[in-house]
UniProtKB/TrEMBL annotation:
Name listed for the protein in its UniProt record: Spy/CpxP family protein refolding chaperone
Leader sequence residues: 1-27
A Pfam family assignment: LTXXQ
Phylogenetic classification of the source organism: Bacteria, Pseudomonadati, Thermodesulfobacteriota, Desulfuromonadia, Geobacterales
One GO CC term, this protein: outer membrane-bounded periplasmic space
Gene3D superfamilies tied to this protein: 1.20.120.1490
Domain of life according to the entry: Bacteria
Length: 178
């Protein structure tokens, strides 16, 4: 991919990931997961990643000056995409698990690994398209000033992430080794 496409995809991913994390905060009315005892989140120790996403969204909403109406609209967008993406996220989990099993088996040949990798990539592409559509809907809720400010904030965040990657190196291939 060219650098501009990678940057665009990364920015869309950051925006959607940030907003998705924040949508959880909006969806539960700002309360923690204790209000949803039947819901489990694979978010690390004590739900720290979940809480970081909520905090990030609150900060972003404040920086952008989102109105309560905008927050409500964005909440609706997240809810619809959360339902729409649920099967894709499950497929991603399954395909990555199968990839991990292939790699860990030690007996998989290159063709099998490439075939499984193509399945993972296909699901990732579907998710990227869905996230881009969601980001487009969310941007439509923002004022032109808010959209411009979001663009600046995301560039700053991407720059910080790039600096982090440079300091810490590549953090893995995305295949959980649990």
């Amino acid at each position: 991919m060219t650098r501009s496409i990678r940057t665009m995809v990364a920015t869309a991913g950051i925006v959607s990931a940030s907003l998705v994390g924040g949508s959880l905060a909006l969806a539960d009315g700002g309360h923690g997961t204790e209000q949803h005892p039947g819901v489990t989140h694979k978010c690390g120790q004590d739900g720290k990643r979940f809480e970081r996403g909520r905090q990030f969204f609150r900060k972003l909403a404040k920086q952008l000056g989102l109105t309560e109406q905008q927050k409500t609209q964005i909440k609706g967008i997240f809810k619809s995409y959360r339902e729409k993406n649920k099967p894709l996220l499950q497929a991603m989990h399954n395909e990555k698990r199968q990839m991990k099993e292939l790699i860990m088996s030690g007996s998989a040949d290159e063709a099998a690994i490439r075939a499984q990798s193509a399945k993972v990539a296909a699901v990732q592409a579907d998710l990227a398209v869905s996230r881009a559509a969601m980001a487009k809907e969310i941007k439509a809720v923002l004022t032109p000033d808010q959209a411009a400010k979001l663009k600046v904030l995301m560039k700053e965040r991407e720059k910080k992430m790039e600096q982090f990657r440079e300091r810490h190196g590549h953090l893995g291939d995305g295949i959980p080794m649990e």
